Fold this sequence. Notes:
Elements: H1 2-30, E1 46-51, E2 54-60, E3 69-74, E4 78-85, E5 103-110, E6 115-125, E7 128-135
Antiparallel strand pairs: 1-2, 2-7, 3-4, 4-5, 6-7
Amino acid sequence: xxxxxxxxxxxxxxxxxxxxxxxxxxxxxxxxxxxxxxxxxxxxxxxxxxxxxxxxxxxxxxxxxxxxxxxxxxxxxxxxxxxxxxxxxxxxxxxxxxxxxxxxxxxxxxxxxxxxxxxxxxxxxxxxxxxxxxxxxxxxxxxxxxxxxxxx
Length: 152
C-alpha cells in the first residue's frame, strides 16, 4: 500500500517542486518592489575573445545613446562600462509589460591579462559596443633562450 501511494504522489511532488522553482525565479526577477525599479547585474551582455595580441570585447547596448556611455581601463586588466539607458515610454503611459530594463548601469570586467590602456579602440554602432584592447608588453609571450653545458 505504501509503495503504491509513493508512486502516485511522486510525480505530483515533482511537479509542485518545479512550480515552486519557477515562482521563485519569477519573484527574483521582479524583486521586492514589484519590478518598478531595475537592477542590472549582467547588463550589458558581453562577449570576450582573444585574437593574436589583442582582446576584443563586444557588448549589446540597444537603445543607448553614445553620449550616455563611458568606458574605462583601470589597473591594466579591468574594463568598466558605465552608462544609462533612458526609458522610451511616455511619462503618463500605463505600463502593461516591461522586459527591457532602463536606468543606470556599471559593469566591470577583469580581463584575462594586462592590456595597454593607451592602445584601445572603441566603436559604438547599431547598439553594439566593440572594444579592441592591445596586450600589454608584459603579457606577451617571449621566447626564452635555453643555455646548457656542452659535453665533449
